[in-house]
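INFO  loader      accepted 1 record
INFO  loader      residues=196
INFO  predictor   begin
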Amino acid sequence: MVGIGNAIVDIIARCDDAFLSKHDLAKGFMRLIPAGEAGRLYEAMGPAIERSGGSAANTIAGLASFGAKCGFIGRVAADQFGGIFRHDIRSLGVAYDTPPADEGEPTARCLIFVTPDGERTMNTFLGTSVHFAAADIDASLIERGKHRLSRRLSVRPRRGEGGLQGGGARLRGSPAPRLPSLCRMPFASTATAPTF
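INFO  predictor   done
INFO  writer      dumping tokens
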């Protein structure tokens, strides 16, 4: 199985309702945020667990944990969070060779605040993951995979490049099939479930 999607690092921390109110966060919701807000929230949050995430990556990680041979294609930056993503997904035996971006936006992250009642409030900065381009695609990995999973990824051309756009993008003449999630176990949760 080969997954193509947003490479996101989940940053999970406990908080109370007062913290959510102070930072004007709607409890239990997920929202997209800009880089500046991601930085401010990261500085304000308490001790956190940082794990690779993203819908397609989580599905691939779940399959790999059951022994499936898997690969993943997604864009990270050459920064701290990009290193975390690469380490975590590779530690599960997933083939991941997308080169990190040396310029542009930082690695995507989802700041997840967990209140004592177990409610999760998610704040996602998509960063460099949305600048995924045709040059980031490892065609040989896709060809080796018997199945492909693509999750809400927008592939955009970089300056001077042709690229693939949106959900109807074609790789080697046929669209990557949309497969149902075979496993809802995000690999952020395998280590954090006992903690939270």
